[in-house]
Amino acid sequence: MTDPPDPPPPEFPFGTAIATLVTLFLFFGLVLVAYYSPNYLGDVKGEPKTDPATKLKEVQARNQAVLEGTDPSAKMSVGQATAEVLAHADKTKDGKNKYGHLPFPAEPKPAAPEKK
Length: 116
Fold this sequence. Notes:
Low-confidence stretches: none
Helix content: 40-55%
Largest sheet: none
Oligomer: single chain
Distance between the termini: 76 Å
Radius of gyration: 36 Å
Mean pLDDT: 85
């Protein structure tokens, strides 16, 4: 018996290549249209834009108020908190820890598995 002849190799997919290029240029055209079209939503005119330097000074003033403890959201100033932590650490010095323990709750250690 004779083997059937090999089928001819597939031709270049011109249809797929043309469709891909058309899609690419269509997408590029839509990007250009979107880029150069006006903003239809419009700018919000309700609140005027503040000067960045003024905004920075306001933020710095708020931060300084928190550090000094004068801000209502701050429980105590940085100096008071530091003194409290150091006083607690001085009271809890022992042979194992020469610097003392911090007044924060310790994370629980995972329980060791029981040996049988």
